[in-house]
């Protein structure tokens, strides 16, 4: 019988004389989850990208090749599928769910591009939206060769009108399902800059379970990921998807005072490279930025441009 992975990892950590509490502090992963890993009990581990990101962070902390460890971990403990959130109106088991739900691990690229301090910089290449557009002709069409249809401009206009009436950020929550529907997206996360903590924090989300969102760590401005890059550069950043995972587009929330955060969208079928999708994401981001600026004093919340 092959040696258990957790036992081998624990042995390596002890050889390196690294306390589990030190790894927990460095990676922001709960110590209880790390303890379970070393006991080869991962029933409480999160699904999707967190499974991959957490084990990658642990491997880096103890000096092992993260790609090798992630691959072995996923072979031994495959990603569960029950955490996926079905699109509105689709019940589990519905034949259409297989079409709408997108590829497995659909949260992968969105959170791969937003997790901070987990050593993911080398795993994904972050590009500006303009740079990604240059590759659009060569990019895969997406799962099963499906290409997004034309935008619903009337629904977009109605949504922008509703967004324009908002006075508080929290009031946008009921409108987020429509944003996701119009873009045929998997989900979205609105990240807001917290100047006191000097980090981006998730403020609104759509398309993901509460358990998944509860484990989203904050993103520091200098993090090596698409969310941080979009925030500090004030430019859209794309992460290409493929037949196994969705893509992502992160657009800064810009006002006259500076950048207040970022809107991260997980997109199906190569939407991150589709012109009208990128344009609508930027429009929605601009509308959200206006609401955020109106609710929060600009001098207290914005990072001014250099």
Explain what this protein looks like in three dimensions.
The protein is of the alpha+beta class. It folds into two domains: 5-76, 434 Repressor (Amino-terminal Domain); 108-301, 2-Layer Sandwich (Beta-Lactamase). It is 41% helix and 14% strand. The protein has 14 helices and seven strands. It has helices at 5-15, 20-27, 31-38, 49-61, 66-76, 97-100, 108-112, 129-134, 153-164, 176-183, 210-214, 226-233, 275-295, 298-301, and strands spanning 127-128, 185-194, 199-206, 219-220, 237-239, 247-255, 258-267. The longest helix has 21 residues, at 275-295. The protein is elongated and about 60 Å long. It starts with a helix and ends in a 5-residue tail after the last helix. Residues 81-147 and 298-306 have low confidence and may be disordered.
